Amino acid sequence: MATSSKVTVVLKAVKNITAQFCPFESNVGSTRMFLSVMSSHKVRATNLNCEVISTVKHDRSEPVVEITYLDGDKLMLKGAKLNCSEMLSAFQSMCSAKELQAKLAAAKK
Amino acid sequence: MAATLCRILLPKQGWLPFTQCVRHGSKSVTRHKRPLHFLKQKLMSVTRYIPPPRPAPPGAYPRQTIRDQEDDPFTILVKKNLKNVFQESKMIAVVQNSGSTADEMMLLKYKLHKHGITVKFFPNQVVRSFLKDSTYSNMAPLFIGHTVLFISKEPKVKEMLSSLRTSRHMLLLGACIDNTLLSAQGVVSYSKLPSVAVVQGELVSGLTLLTSQTAAMLQRHPAQLSALLQQHVKQQSSEGAPKAQEAT
Protein backbone atom coordinates (compact mmCIF):
# COMPACT_ATOMS: atom_id res chain seq x y z
CA MET A 1 0.00 0.00 0.00
CA ALA A 2 2.91 2.39 0.61
CA THR A 3 3.95 4.38 -2.42
CA SER A 4 7.57 4.25 -3.40
CA SER A 5 9.26 7.39 -2.17
CA LYS A 6 12.23 7.16 -4.49
CA VAL A 7 11.15 10.39 -6.12
CA THR A 8 11.49 13.02 -3.43
CA VAL A 9 8.77 15.59 -3.13
CA VAL A 10 10.00 19.13 -2.67
CA LEU A 11 7.70 21.66 -1.04
CA LYS A 12 9.76 24.77 -1.71
CA ALA A 13 7.03 26.62 -3.56
CA VAL A 14 4.16 25.52 -1.34
CA LYS A 15 2.56 27.73 1.28
CA ASN A 16 0.19 25.24 2.88
CA ILE A 17 -1.71 22.03 2.23
CA THR A 18 -5.24 21.54 3.51
CA ALA A 19 -7.08 18.26 3.27
CA GLN A 20 -10.57 17.21 4.21
CA PHE A 21 -12.02 13.73 4.07
CA CYS A 22 -14.57 11.45 5.65
CA PRO A 23 -12.83 8.34 6.95
CA PHE A 24 -15.93 6.14 6.77
CA GLU A 25 -16.12 6.43 2.99
CA SER A 26 -14.41 3.85 0.83
CA ASN A 27 -12.77 6.26 -1.64
CA VAL A 28 -10.51 7.91 0.91
CA GLY A 29 -7.47 5.61 0.70
CA SER A 30 -5.54 7.58 -1.90
CA THR A 31 -6.11 10.89 -0.08
CA ARG A 32 -4.90 9.43 3.19
CA MET A 33 -1.82 7.97 1.53
CA PHE A 34 -1.09 11.31 -0.12
CA LEU A 35 -1.43 13.04 3.25
CA SER A 36 0.88 10.59 4.96
CA VAL A 37 3.49 11.11 2.21
CA MET A 38 3.17 14.91 2.55
CA SER A 39 3.50 14.74 6.34
CA SER A 40 6.57 12.52 6.36
CA HIS A 41 9.83 13.91 7.72
CA LYS A 42 11.77 14.10 4.49
CA VAL A 43 9.09 16.04 2.72
CA ARG A 44 8.42 18.38 5.61
CA ALA A 45 12.11 19.06 6.01
CA THR A 46 12.26 20.57 2.52
CA ASN A 47 10.09 23.46 3.70
CA LEU A 48 9.53 23.98 7.40
CA ASN A 49 7.11 26.88 6.87
CA CYS A 50 4.65 24.75 4.96
CA GLU A 51 1.71 23.60 7.08
CA VAL A 52 -0.23 20.40 6.51
CA ILE A 53 -3.73 20.83 7.93
CA SER A 54 -6.21 17.98 7.73
CA THR A 55 -9.87 17.99 8.72
CA VAL A 56 -11.92 14.90 9.46
CA LYS A 57 -15.56 15.23 8.46
CA HIS A 58 -18.57 12.93 8.51
CA ASP A 59 -20.85 14.31 5.81
CA ARG A 60 -20.24 11.87 2.91
CA SER A 61 -18.34 14.60 1.12
CA GLU A 62 -15.65 13.87 -1.43
CA PRO A 63 -12.05 13.88 -0.23
CA VAL A 64 -10.31 17.05 -1.39
CA VAL A 65 -6.74 18.23 -1.01
CA GLU A 66 -6.09 21.93 -1.63
CA ILE A 67 -2.51 23.11 -2.10
CA THR A 68 -1.79 26.84 -1.91
CA TYR A 69 1.43 28.04 -3.49
CA LEU A 70 3.54 31.01 -2.49
CA ASP A 71 2.41 33.03 -5.50
CA GLY A 72 -1.26 32.55 -4.68
CA ASP A 73 -2.10 29.71 -7.07
CA LYS A 74 -4.20 26.85 -5.79
CA LEU A 75 -4.18 23.23 -6.85
CA MET A 76 -7.25 21.18 -5.94
CA LEU A 77 -6.93 17.42 -6.00
CA LYS A 78 -10.21 15.55 -5.73
CA GLY A 79 -9.12 12.20 -4.45
CA ALA A 80 -12.36 10.26 -4.92
CA LYS A 81 -11.39 8.76 -8.26
CA LEU A 82 -7.66 9.40 -8.21
CA ASN A 83 -4.80 7.09 -7.39
CA CYS A 84 -2.16 8.17 -4.89
CA SER A 85 0.58 8.04 -7.53
CA GLU A 86 -1.55 10.12 -9.92
CA MET A 87 -2.05 12.78 -7.25
CA LEU A 88 1.66 12.79 -6.49
CA SER A 89 2.63 13.12 -10.15
CA ALA A 90 0.16 15.97 -10.69
CA PHE A 91 1.45 17.75 -7.62
CA GLN A 92 5.09 17.27 -8.63
CA SER A 93 4.53 18.51 -12.18
CA MET A 94 2.92 21.68 -10.81
CA CYS A 95 5.76 22.14 -8.32
CA SER A 96 8.42 21.73 -10.99
CA ALA A 97 6.59 24.24 -13.23
CA LYS A 98 6.56 26.73 -10.35
CA GLU A 99 10.26 26.17 -9.70
CA LEU A 100 11.07 26.79 -13.33
CA GLN A 101 9.08 30.02 -13.23
CA ALA A 102 10.91 31.10 -10.11
CA LYS A 103 14.30 30.29 -11.68
CA LEU A 104 13.44 32.26 -14.79
CA ALA A 105 12.30 35.20 -12.72
CA ALA A 106 15.52 35.05 -10.68
CA ALA A 107 17.64 34.77 -13.85
CA LYS A 108 15.92 37.81 -15.36
CA LYS A 109 16.78 39.84 -12.30
CA MET B 1 22.62 -40.62 -62.95
CA ALA B 2 19.59 -41.85 -64.75
CA ALA B 3 19.03 -45.45 -64.19
CA THR B 4 17.56 -47.19 -67.11
CA LEU B 5 15.26 -50.05 -66.93
CA CYS B 6 17.47 -52.46 -65.27
CA ARG B 7 17.07 -55.99 -65.76
CA ILE B 8 19.31 -58.27 -64.00
CA LEU B 9 20.35 -60.97 -66.29
CA LEU B 10 19.18 -64.15 -64.78
CA PRO B 11 22.07 -66.30 -64.02
CA LYS B 12 20.00 -69.38 -64.42
CA GLN B 13 16.84 -70.15 -66.28
CA GLY B 14 13.50 -70.06 -64.42
CA TRP B 15 14.53 -67.78 -61.61
CA LEU B 16 12.42 -64.71 -60.75
CA PRO B 17 14.33 -61.44 -60.63
CA PHE B 18 15.22 -60.08 -57.19
CA THR B 19 14.82 -56.41 -58.12
CA GLN B 20 12.73 -54.76 -60.76
CA CYS B 21 13.13 -51.05 -61.15
CA VAL B 22 10.06 -49.84 -63.00
CA ARG B 23 10.41 -46.12 -62.53
CA HIS B 24 13.36 -43.85 -63.07
CA GLY B 25 14.11 -40.17 -63.20
CA SER B 26 13.30 -39.21 -59.61
CA LYS B 27 14.93 -40.20 -56.38
CA SER B 28 13.11 -40.92 -53.17
CA VAL B 29 15.89 -39.77 -50.87
CA THR B 30 16.86 -36.16 -51.56
CA ARG B 31 18.81 -33.50 -49.72
CA HIS B 32 15.98 -30.98 -50.06
CA LYS B 33 12.41 -31.69 -48.99
CA ARG B 34 10.77 -33.43 -51.87
CA PRO B 35 7.45 -31.80 -52.82
CA LEU B 36 4.71 -34.15 -51.80
CA HIS B 37 2.03 -35.19 -54.15
CA PHE B 38 -0.97 -32.94 -53.65
CA LEU B 39 -3.19 -35.73 -52.40
CA LYS B 40 -0.55 -36.86 -49.99
CA GLN B 41 -0.07 -33.26 -48.85
CA LYS B 42 -3.78 -32.94 -48.14
CA LEU B 43 -3.81 -36.20 -46.25
CA MET B 44 -0.82 -35.23 -44.18
CA SER B 45 -2.33 -31.86 -43.23
CA VAL B 46 -5.65 -33.44 -42.27
CA THR B 47 -4.09 -36.17 -40.19
CA ARG B 48 -1.49 -33.92 -38.50
CA TYR B 49 -0.86 -34.70 -34.87
CA ILE B 50 -2.07 -31.94 -32.51
CA PRO B 51 -0.77 -32.66 -29.03
CA PRO B 52 -3.11 -32.02 -26.09
CA PRO B 53 -2.51 -28.63 -24.31
CA ARG B 54 -0.17 -29.20 -21.42
CA PRO B 55 -1.16 -27.44 -18.21
CA ALA B 56 1.18 -24.82 -16.75
CA PRO B 57 3.59 -26.12 -14.14
CA PRO B 58 2.14 -25.93 -10.62
CA GLY B 59 3.92 -22.81 -9.36
CA ALA B 60 3.86 -20.75 -12.57
CA TYR B 61 0.79 -18.52 -12.07
CA PRO B 62 -0.78 -17.14 -8.87
CA ARG B 63 -4.16 -18.52 -7.83
CA GLN B 64 -7.06 -16.61 -9.35
CA THR B 65 -9.56 -17.23 -6.55
CA ILE B 66 -8.41 -16.25 -3.08
CA ARG B 67 -9.38 -19.22 -1.05
CA ASP B 68 -9.96 -18.83 2.66
CA GLN B 69 -6.58 -19.66 4.00
CA GLU B 70 -5.97 -20.65 7.52
CA ASP B 71 -4.44 -17.92 9.62
CA ASP B 72 -0.87 -18.30 10.68
CA PRO B 73 -0.20 -18.55 14.43
CA PHE B 74 0.90 -14.92 14.79
CA THR B 75 -2.37 -13.71 13.27
CA ILE B 76 -4.31 -15.96 15.62
CA LEU B 77 -2.42 -14.50 18.57
CA VAL B 78 -3.04 -10.92 17.45
CA LYS B 79 -6.73 -11.67 16.91
CA LYS B 80 -6.99 -13.12 20.43
CA ASN B 81 -5.38 -9.97 21.73
CA LEU B 82 -7.80 -7.81 19.76
CA LYS B 83 -10.76 -9.79 21.06
CA ASN B 84 -9.64 -9.18 24.63
CA VAL B 85 -9.15 -5.50 23.88
CA PHE B 86 -12.64 -5.10 22.45
CA GLN B 87 -14.21 -6.99 25.33
CA GLU B 88 -12.45 -5.24 28.17
CA SER B 89 -12.17 -1.64 27.02
CA LYS B 90 -15.05 0.79 26.80
CA MET B 91 -13.29 3.30 24.61
CA ILE B 92 -11.34 2.43 21.45
CA ALA B 93 -10.24 5.41 19.39
CA VAL B 94 -8.65 5.14 15.94
CA VAL B 95 -6.09 7.81 15.18
CA GLN B 96 -4.10 8.37 12.02
CA ASN B 97 -0.45 8.99 12.63
CA SER B 98 1.15 11.01 9.83
CA GLY B 99 4.84 11.26 10.53
CA SER B 100 5.32 11.79 14.24
CA THR B 101 8.77 11.23 15.69
CA ALA B 102 9.68 8.68 18.34
CA ASP B 103 10.03 11.25 21.13
CA GLU B 104 6.66 12.81 20.23
CA MET B 105 5.11 9.35 20.47
CA MET B 106 6.84 8.77 23.78
CA LEU B 107 5.51 12.04 25.22
CA LEU B 108 2.01 11.26 23.98
CA LYS B 109 2.13 7.77 25.45
CA TYR B 110 3.27 9.21 28.76
CA LYS B 111 0.52 11.83 28.82
CA LEU B 112 -2.14 9.28 28.00
CA HIS B 113 -0.82 6.68 30.43
CA LYS B 114 -1.39 9.12 33.27
CA HIS B 115 -5.13 8.94 32.48
CA GLY B 116 -5.14 5.20 31.96
CA ILE B 117 -5.24 5.22 28.14
CA THR B 118 -2.94 2.72 26.39
CA VAL B 119 -1.57 3.21 22.90
CA LYS B 120 -1.53 0.07 20.77
CA PHE B 121 -0.44 -0.81 17.25
CA PHE B 122 -1.94 -3.65 15.26
CA PRO B 123 -1.40 -4.68 11.63
CA ASN B 124 -4.22 -3.36 9.44
CA GLN B 125 -4.89 -6.60 7.59
CA VAL B 126 -5.33 -8.60 10.77
CA VAL B 127 -7.61 -5.96 12.26
CA ARG B 128 -9.75 -5.85 9.13
CA SER B 129 -10.15 -9.61 8.99
CA PHE B 130 -11.01 -9.64 12.70
CA LEU B 131 -13.57 -6.84 12.38
CA LYS B 132 -15.18 -8.50 9.37
CA ASP B 133 -16.21 -11.45 11.53
CA SER B 134 -17.20 -9.47 14.60
CA THR B 135 -20.03 -7.00 15.22
CA TYR B 136 -17.73 -4.00 14.70
CA SER B 137 -17.55 -4.40 10.94
CA ASN B 138 -18.39 -0.73 10.29
CA MET B 139 -15.07 0.29 11.79
CA ALA B 140 -13.17 -1.53 9.06
CA PRO B 141 -12.84 1.41 6.58
CA LEU B 142 -11.01 3.43 9.24
CA PHE B 143 -8.00 1.14 9.18
CA ILE B 144 -6.06 2.41 6.17
CA GLY B 145 -2.49 3.63 6.38
CA HIS B 146 -0.60 4.19 9.60
CA THR B 147 -3.20 3.85 12.38
CA VAL B 148 -2.85 3.82 16.15
CA LEU B 149 -5.42 2.56 18.64
CA PHE B 150 -6.08 4.40 21.90
CA ILE B 151 -7.66 2.00 24.33
CA SER B 152 -9.02 2.65 27.80
CA LYS B 153 -11.41 0.99 30.21
CA GLU B 154 -13.08 4.26 31.15
CA PRO B 155 -14.18 6.62 28.40
CA LYS B 156 -11.84 9.53 29.14
CA VAL B 157 -12.54 11.58 26.09
CA LYS B 158 -11.65 15.07 27.29
CA GLU B 159 -8.12 14.15 28.30
CA MET B 160 -7.59 12.27 25.05
CA LEU B 161 -8.81 15.21 22.98
CA SER B 162 -6.62 17.66 24.85
CA SER B 163 -3.51 15.54 24.30
CA LEU B 164 -4.39 15.06 20.63
CA ARG B 165 -4.83 18.79 20.17
CA THR B 166 -1.25 19.40 21.28
CA SER B 167 0.23 16.79 18.94
CA ARG B 168 0.35 17.98 15.36
CA HIS B 169 0.47 14.70 13.52
CA MET B 170 -2.23 12.63 15.17
CA LEU B 171 -5.62 12.88 13.53
CA LEU B 172 -8.69 11.42 15.24
CA LEU B 173 -10.70 9.41 12.75
CA GLY B 174 -13.36 7.80 14.92
CA ALA B 175 -14.00 5.98 18.16
CA CYS B 176 -16.07 3.13 19.52
CA ILE B 177 -17.30 4.22 22.95
CA ASP B 178 -19.62 1.90 24.89
CA ASN B 179 -20.21 -0.23 21.76
CA THR B 180 -21.31 2.84 19.79
CA LEU B 181 -19.36 3.93 16.76
CA LEU B 182 -18.76 7.68 16.79
CA SER B 183 -17.17 9.99 14.25
CA ALA B 184 -14.65 12.68 15.19
CA GLN B 185 -17.37 15.28 15.66
CA GLY B 186 -19.38 12.73 17.64
CA VAL B 187 -16.46 12.28 19.98
CA VAL B 188 -16.19 16.04 20.49
CA SER B 189 -19.90 16.34 21.29
CA TYR B 190 -19.61 13.31 23.58
CA SER B 191 -16.90 15.10 25.49
CA LYS B 192 -19.18 18.13 25.95
CA LEU B 193 -21.97 16.01 27.45
CA PRO B 194 -22.53 16.44 31.19
CA SER B 195 -21.99 13.45 33.43
CA VAL B 196 -24.55 10.66 33.79
CA ALA B 197 -25.72 11.78 37.27
CA VAL B 198 -26.40 15.31 36.03
CA VAL B 199 -28.41 14.07 33.06
CA GLN B 200 -30.38 11.67 35.20
CA GLY B 201 -31.17 14.46 37.65
CA GLU B 202 -32.36 16.71 34.83
CA LEU B 203 -34.61 13.99 33.45
CA VAL B 204 -36.16 13.22 36.83
CA SER B 205 -36.76 16.90 37.55
CA GLY B 206 -38.41 17.39 34.15
CA LEU B 207 -40.76 14.45 34.69
CA THR B 208 -41.76 15.42 38.19
CA LEU B 209 -42.18 19.12 37.44
CA LEU B 210 -45.93 19.08 36.91
CA THR B 211 -46.70 16.76 39.81
CA SER B 212 -44.54 18.84 42.16
CA GLN B 213 -46.30 21.98 41.01
CA THR B 214 -49.76 20.50 41.74
CA ALA B 215 -48.56 19.20 45.11
CA ALA B 216 -47.26 22.65 46.02
CA MET B 217 -50.52 24.26 44.92
CA LEU B 218 -52.63 21.88 47.00
CA GLN B 219 -50.52 22.57 50.05
CA ARG B 220 -51.32 26.30 49.94
CA HIS B 221 -53.91 28.14 51.96
CA PRO B 222 -57.44 26.85 51.00
CA ALA B 223 -58.73 30.41 50.25
CA GLN B 224 -55.92 30.91 47.73
CA LEU B 225 -56.62 27.47 46.25
CA SER B 226 -60.37 28.22 45.84
CA ALA B 227 -59.59 31.62 44.24
CA LEU B 228 -57.17 29.93 41.81
CA LEU B 229 -59.75 27.30 40.88
CA GLN B 230 -62.47 29.93 40.32
CA GLN B 231 -60.13 31.89 38.05
CA HIS B 232 -59.33 28.69 36.15
CA VAL B 233 -63.09 27.93 35.67
CA LYS B 234 -63.70 31.52 34.40
CA GLN B 235 -60.84 31.20 31.92
CA GLN B 236 -62.14 27.84 30.70
CA SER B 237 -65.66 29.20 30.17
CA SER B 238 -64.36 32.33 28.42
CA GLU B 239 -62.24 30.17 26.10
CA GLY B 240 -65.20 27.84 25.44
CA ALA B 241 -67.54 30.76 24.49
CA PRO B 242 -65.35 32.33 21.76
CA LYS B 243 -64.70 28.85 20.34
CA ALA B 244 -68.47 28.16 20.18
CA GLN B 245 -68.95 31.56 18.46
CA GLU B 246 -66.22 30.69 15.93
CA ALA B 247 -67.85 27.34 15.28
CA THR B 248 -71.21 28.95 14.55
TrEMBL record, chain A:
It is found in: Mitochondrion. Pfam families: MRP_L53 (PF10780). Keywords: Mitochondrion, Ribonucleoprotein, Ribosomal protein, Transit peptide. Coiled coil: none annotated. InterPro entries: mtLSU_mL53, Ribosomal_mL53. The keyword Kinase does not apply. GO terms for cellular component: mitochondrial large ribosomal subunit. Belongs to the mitochondrion-specific ribosomal protein mL53 family. This is Large ribosomal subunit protein mL53. It comes from Pogonophryne albipinna. The lineage of its organism: Eukaryota, Metazoa, Chordata, Craniata, Vertebrata.
TrEMBL record, chain B:
Belongs to the universal ribosomal protein uL10 family. This is Large ribosomal subunit protein uL10m. It holds the Pfam family Ribosomal_L10. Keywords: Ribonucleoprotein, Ribosomal protein. It comes from the Eukaryota. One of its GO terms (cellular component) is ribosome. SUPFAM superfamilies: Ribosomal protein L10-like (SSF160369). InterPro entries: Ribosomal_uL10 (IPR001790), Ribosomal_uL10-like_sf (IPR043141), Ribosomal_uL10_bac_type (IPR047865).
